[in-house]
TrEMBL record:
MF (Gene Ontology): histone deacetylase activity
Organism, as annotated: Actinophytocola xinjiangensis
Domain of life: Bacteria
Domain Histone deacetylase intervals: 22-315
GO BP field: acetoin catabolic process; epigenetic regulation of gene expression
Keyword entries, A-Z: Acetoin catabolism
Designated name of the protein: Acetoin utilization protein AcuC
Family annotation (SUPFAM superfamilies): Arginase/deacetylase (SSF52768)
Known pathway: Ketone degradation; acetoin degradation
Family: Belongs to the histone deacetylase family.
Length: 391
């Protein structure tokens, strides 16, 4: 019997490098693959090597003029507009080629599922969810996840659910499908009054016949694992049950961690592991087991991202790693060589509890206001009772 998931990876994806001290350092990807390999998670797994996405596929989501600007930016210098050449999105050599390779990675994952070769596929280099039709934003040049969803809609899928668990609102994917009733986008993120990109309020619900298919849960700063799962379970399963997707796509940013330098939620690596296991269960229950996962944000490059995304890959492969598993010496030796002052964790978890009290319809905790606002905004549009915790 074949493996339950395809893993898309090649070192060419490290070319998406915004340079200097930019927080989106591609070393986080290399360290993830090295850790997964050292733990045996990738034993017997043939990593699928992506090809650069052709321009006609990128044009599913992005304007031709914008793509031309991305191509020309390294020669033109900093003044090219379209959000390029900013602190968030500096111009770098071979920017189009590197960005198109990320798109190609998520497209390959999509094709594996659409062809029936596998029901699950993971593109850890993907998840660049802020890129808009004609501009770069939030470290994202091309929106690989939106391109993959668009491709899937043209290749046998009529209802796709997208669940974004990054600390930042999945604004680019929401914008791409805001008026498309075939795509349900759900984003759980830090309150946009306190964090980039400043969107993702509960009243952003979709338009033009797609009302109710954009869903936003704006979480208060310092939300921890237990509160996060209270909100997730009060919103997501009911909507998936009502929408009945044929495929679940998830953006698995890990900048929700309490050590992340760019945001203020308080999740743990143990919480991230449970998120992936929960999404896997939901895909089995509501989407015939079909699940495409992409990476996303995450800026604690050594202590958090490699452990969390190793758990993601392991979960996709049904090779779940116990949080008490010690970090392998092969990997810690590598870190000691490249970052000798880094303080390394001892195990694949943090010993944090992630059990939650289910939402009971009250508004007693800070996160309950987020639950109430989201449910009241979208549940009636799906025939659900926003005040009934059984829905």
């Amino acid at each position: 019997m074949g493996l339950p998931a395809a893993v898309v990876w090649d070192s060419a994806l490290l070319g998406y490098d915004l340079g200097g001290e930019h927080p989106l350092n591609p070393i986080r990807l290399e360290l993830t693959v090295r850790l997964a390999s050292a733990l045996g998670v990738l034993d017997g797994v043939e990593l699928l090597v992506p090809e650069s996405a052709p321009e006609e596929e990128i044009r599913r989501i992005h304007d031709a003029a914008y793509i031309a600007a991305v191509r020309e930016a390294p020669m033109a210098g900093w003044d090219v507009g379209h959000g390029l050449g900013t602190t968030d999105n500096p111009i770098f050599d071979r920017m189009h080629e590197a960005s198109a390779m990320v798109v190609g990675s998520s497209l390959m994952a999509a094709r594996q599922i659409a062809s029936g070769a596998t029901k699950r596929a993971v593109s850890i280099a993907g998840g660049l969810h802020h890129a808009m039709r004609s501009r770069a934003a939030g470290f994202c040049v091309y929106n690989d996840t939106a391109v993959a969803i668009s491709w899937l809609l043209d290749h046998g899928f009529e209802r796709i659910a997208y669940v974004d668990t990054d600390v930042h609102h999945g604004d680019g994917v929401q914008a791409a499908f805001y008026d498309d009733p075939r795509v349900l986008t759900i984003s759980l993120h830090q309150n946009p009054l306190t964090l980039f990109p400043g969107t993702g309020f509960a009243d952003e619900i979709g338009s033009d016949g797609a009302e109710g298919t954009s869903v936003n849960v704006a979480l208060p700063p310092l939300t921890d694992d237990r509160a996060w799962f209270r909100a997730f379970h009060a919103v997501v399963p009911s909507l998936l049950n009502a929408f009945q997707p044929q495929l679940l796509v998830s953006q698995c940013g890990v900048d929700t961690h309490d050590e992340d330098p760019l945001a203020s939620l308080s999740l743990s690596v143990d919480g991230h592991r449970r998120i992936y296991q929960t999404v896997r269960d939901l895909a089995e229950r509501y989407a015939g087991g079909r699940w495409l996962a992409a990476g996303g944000g995450g800026y604690q490059l050594i202590r958090v991202v490699p452990r969390s995304w190793t758990h993601l890959i392991a979960t996709m492969l049904d090779r779940d790693v116990d949080p008490s598993t010690p970090l392998p010496r092969e990997w810690t030796d590598l870190i000691e060589r490249i970052a000798p002052t880094a303080e390394l964790p001892a195990t694949m978890g943090e010993g944090r509890g992630t059990d939650h009290e289910p939402w009971d319809g009250t508004v007693e905790l800070a996160v309950d206001r987020s639950i109430r606002d989201t449910r009241h905004a979208v549940f009636p549009l799906h025939g659900l009772d926003p005040a009934d915790p059984r829905d």
